[in-house]
Design the sequence.
């Protein structure tokens, strides 16, 4: 079957770094998305990884290892506005398989 | 965990035809469901909020007569793209928060890829 796992909730301190992991087992893989979703809003695209390695985009970086079925989203210099849910989704055969999302709580 | 399904997974149709997309919550009830469009490597754009037993709420710029939404039961919402045109080709995704939980908890469907020729 298809399975994507992310931690349910994480807490971090403002100004710190946090890594949100996503592991997946899917039959087929085209790429992996990370989205940020604030409560009551539509998810916002953060990254799309197809190849192994780290992609950096400002304070956010995303890493993928296809052989290990593993990805992480790295958030640096955390700000209070980063408090949100972070969704990992695998694209396969033009479909998205969603993780349940990780609720990130930022404390001052 | 909660599962949301969509049918069909993908559809190709001729310009001018109508296409119906179903969104089902398989193991929970949802009084509200959300419909999104996604363009390649972009954010999900909320199109409308589907409310069971009442009219859908459409986002600004979304034509309600073109994108008909019906939320006839607590487990099913349908989106009908009427008189589809090539510019309607997109990836349509629904999500649903379980009735027993707040809107913060949403489960997403796998999406329906529509190609209008």
Sequence:
């Amino acid at each position: 079957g298809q399975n994507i796992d992310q931690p349910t909730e994480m807490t971090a301190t403002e100004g710190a770094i946090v890594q949100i992991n996503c592991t997946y087992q899917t039959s087929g893989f085209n790429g992996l998305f990370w989205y940020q979703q604030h409560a009551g809003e539509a998810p916002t695209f953060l990254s799309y990884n197809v190849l192994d390695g780290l992609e950096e985009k400002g304070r956010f970086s995303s890493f993928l290892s296809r052989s290990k079925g593993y990805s992480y989203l790295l958030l640096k210099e955390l700000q209070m506005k980063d408090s949100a849910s972070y969704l990992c989704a695998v694209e396969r055969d033009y479909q998205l398989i969603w993780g349940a999302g990780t609720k990130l709580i930022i404390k001052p | 965990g909660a599962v949301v399904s969509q049918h069909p997974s993908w559809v190709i149709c001729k310009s001018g035809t109508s296409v119906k997309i179903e969104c089902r919550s398989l193991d929970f009830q949802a009084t509200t469901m959300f419909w999104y469009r996604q363009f390649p490597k972009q954010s999900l754009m909320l199109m409308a909020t589907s409310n069971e037993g009442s009219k859908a709420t459409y986002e600004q710029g979304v034509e309600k007569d073109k994108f008909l939404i019906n939320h006839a039961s607590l487990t099913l919402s349908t989106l009908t793209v009427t008189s589809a045109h090539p510019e309607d080709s997109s990836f349509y995704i629904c999500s649903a928060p379980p009735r027993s939980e707040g809107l913060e908890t949403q489960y997403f469907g796998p999406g329906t890829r529509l190609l209008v020729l």
Notes: The CA atoms of residues 52 and 64 of chain A lie 5 Å apart. The mean pLDDT of chain A is 93.
